[in-house]
Amino acid sequence: MSNGVKCAVIPAAGLGTRFLPATKAQPKEMLPVVDKPAIQYVVEEAVEAGIDDILIITGRGKRSIEDHFDRQFELEYFLETKGKDRMLTEVRDLADLADIHYVRQGEPLGLGHAVSVARKHVGDRAFAVMLGDDLMVDDSKVLRAMIAAHGVHDAPVVALRQVPESEISSYGCADIGGVDPGSEPGVVQIHGIVEKPEPHLAPSSMAVMGRYVFTPEIFDILDHVEPGVGGEIQLTDAIAELITTGDVFGYAFSEGRYDIGAKLDYLRATVELALQRDDLGAPFEAFLTDLMARRAR
What CATH number was assigned to the domain covering residues 7-261? Predict the structure, then answer.
């Protein structure tokens, strides 16, 4: 697939406090979902959308992310000598998914700051931002649609999903225009955006999800944007300033997203993805059916 966005930035420097104590000594992005760490799903999504240059923003204690996407010759030798060819192919392929680079975010100053440290790597290219704890299990449908919308409008595109009013204060919230299903289904114009509004102040029920396509102008704004909610450099605040100088679009979707930083969504992802597996789905479904029957007695 050919497109104009070949670079992705994956911020993965957060402390993962919502999942303590599991994340005390391992990155939340490395929590296994069935038999793959969460961040591998994100990298595979980028590759499936045609992206071949990936920069992962890391921090202290994140070395296992780098190790996961590197070659491990001792393990490969063991698998080869034991004739475990399928496993050998899987671990070798990890190192060949894309050109994966790493840079550290020196201080945990927020998502906007994490994106800003990618400036030298990205240069003057359009690029995607993909949060490392947001899983989009949709065959890259959303990301590909966002890249296509960027190609049409040459403007930033933000992923949006409707959430209950009671949840909007956990997200960035977009003030959107109408959808024109005849031209670009799902594409809307964003007229304003605010970080974590109280429900009665929210301009809509459309929440910003963890996928973005930006033009490099975002870096100039991030250089001077002031700390916002939580005392952090908020990416949402930079997008709000972008809206004052040009068009910003949203892509609205409804299915396929999991926030694996939240315990309930992590469990939902593990169960639903296991049920989709050819090797696990049927026996796991039988187990769950039996479990629920026993609990109902």
Answer: 3.90.550.10
